[in-house]
Design goal:
Elements: H1 2-17, E1 26-34, E2 38-46, H2 52-69, H3 73-92, H4 99-107, H5 117-127, H6 133-143, H7 163-176
């Protein structure tokens, strides 16, 4: 369920990046495990040169709104449809798997035994009706590391005018824009 939440937030961010005058070129949010001993939650924002502030504020706002207000049934259904299509596609191609997929299943399974595409689809069909926007939000919040006092790292041609204080101020502005 948490992955559905991450996918929705990232879909919202992608929609902003596709606008005519987007606040950023790319933004993505997710949580990853680090060597089985810790986890990190990251918001990555790539903006045009000199437009870091607009990008950071916009991305932080999207994230904060998602965490505060959750998701719509339509957003959850869209992600479930995409996941279902992926499983169905895997079933169709089960007789001719790519070697890279087999290697990926073995190397990156996180102690989960690989299964057949048909079994995964059957599991998904049983699981999908239990998914609600509230459960998705709760699962995502339970996994994500709170970004209350995040480590903010800037990488670009020129350091932001105002330095780390300007970065923190932009983050705080996005954090406060929940409406």
């Amino acid at each position: 369920m948490r992955q559905i939440g991450y996918r929705i937030v990232n879909s919202r961010l992608q929609s902003m990046a596709r606008r005519i005058d987007p606040p950023f070129i790319y933004a993505g949010w997710g949580t990853a495990y680090v060597f089985r001993i810790g986890r990190t939650t990251n918001l990555l924002v790539v903006s045009r040169d000199g437009e870091w502030r607009k990008g950071l504020v916009a991305a932080a706002t999207v994230l904060r709104r998602a965490l505060a207000k959750g998701f719509t049934r339509a957003e959850v259904d869209e992600q479930l449809a995409k996941l279902r299509a992926g499983h169905e596609s895997s079933v169709v191609g089960a007789d001719t798997p790519f070697n890279s997929l087999l290697v990926s299943d073995v190397l990156y399974s996180d102690d989960i035994a690989p299964t057949t595409p048909a079994a995964a689809l059957a599991w998904f069909k049983a699981f999908a009706p239990t998914v609600t926007p509230a459960k998705v939000l709760a699962a995502m919040k339970a996994e994500a590391v709170p970004l209350n006092a995040p480590l903010i790292r800037f990488q670009g041609r020129r350091a932001p005018q105002g330095g780390s204080q300007a970065l923190r101020a932009a983050w705080a502005e996005g954090e406060g824009a929940v409406e």
